[in-house]
Amino acid sequence: MLAQLLDQGDKDRAFLNVNSNEVVLLVNNLGGVSALELGGITAEVALQLEGSYGIHPVRILSGTYMTSLNGLGFSISLLNIVNTDIGGPSMIQLLDYPTEATGWSSPVLKETWEAKNEATREEEADTSQATKPSDLKYDAAAATKSITAALQRVIAAEPDITKYDTVVGDGDCGIGLKRGAEAILKHISEKPLTGDAVVDLASAVPVVESTMDGTSGALYAIFLNALTGALRGLAPGAADPKVWAAALKQSSEAMARYTPARPGDRTLVDALHPFVDVLGQTADVKKAAEAARAGAEKTKGMKASLGRTVYVGGSGFEQVPDPGAWGLSCFFAGLAGIEGEDGWEKL
């Protein structure tokens, strides 16, 4: 869009020759763009104007000025500020004047726009802070292989999870899980596991916190932080399945203090709870993963008590499992080394 406005080499569509030191940018919502999306669009337009064209708007107007009802789109307008020599207030002063016109969003000053936003963190999560070793040991090589398989299983299942969440939610669950899985894979490739359960888990938690969003991202962050604390309380020794089961039980109880989700509510808890229970009873990761799978499959047709499915409505919940539970069961399947089979990623 900016090229169509500004590329003087395109004789058919070179709409504006910027010949002023003062340019005003207006990004208009055609009616169906959310405030969050419009903010992101405006920031990107301003960034491209500066980086590609050397244009620093003296005023930025962003809002819903002229719509096409609830049109899913936006328009970009650029205004050369020139001296009209007619006396009176300048064009900038006129734009800055207060108004009671409905729908008119006040312009943002250049100084305000370019001021550094201290509340925004763009740097990667700092995982460099050392965690005190716990001497709770495990086989780092075997764990790397299992965790990699588990994360790859989640990534492979993303299309199905997204499809399920499109039916009963807002369609972002699969992408969120995939983003988190890819970030953890990158993390362990750059910082190999040490074989200390607490050190390695504590190192991964900030990655989850910074890459996974939505309600499930918050729940995973709470759960993994609690799991780190539980493991430290069980150290030192060997981090065998019984130790992991005890720590998982403690972290599940901790997470329950922050969410009302319980088995039967059609959430990721429907896969997590049976995994933790069966692992505690049998110390067998494969049996626990199979229990998680069964729990996730039971959510198909289960009426939701919590989450977006509650107010999405319709009968979609009868055709698909809960996306969060399904994604977690896929992780457990990969962790246990269960090969893909009919009905595992496909119902």
UniProtKB/TrEMBL annotation:
Coiled coil: none annotated. Pathway: Polyol metabolism; glycerol fermentation; glycerone phosphate from glycerol (oxidative route): step 2/2. It catalyses: D-glyceraldehyde + ATP = D-glyceraldehyde 3-phosphate + ADP + H(+); dihydroxyacetone + ATP = dihydroxyacetone phosphate + ADP + H(+). InterPro entries: DhaK_dom, DhaL_dom, DhaL_dom_sf, Dihydroxyacetone_Kinase. It comes from the Eukaryota. Belongs to the dihydroxyacetone kinase (DAK) family. Residues 1-104 form the DhaK domain. Signal peptide: none annotated. The keyword ATP-binding applies. Keywords: ATP-binding, Glycerol metabolism, Kinase, Nucleotide-binding, Transferase. One of its GO terms (biological process) is anaerobic glycerol catabolic process. Catalyzes both the phosphorylation of dihydroxyacetone and of glyceraldehyde. Residues 141-337 form the DhaL domain. GO terms for cellular component: cytosol. It holds the Pfam family Dak2. The keyword Transferase applies. This is DAK2 domain-containing protein. GO terms for molecular function: ATP binding; glycerone kinase activity; triokinase activity.
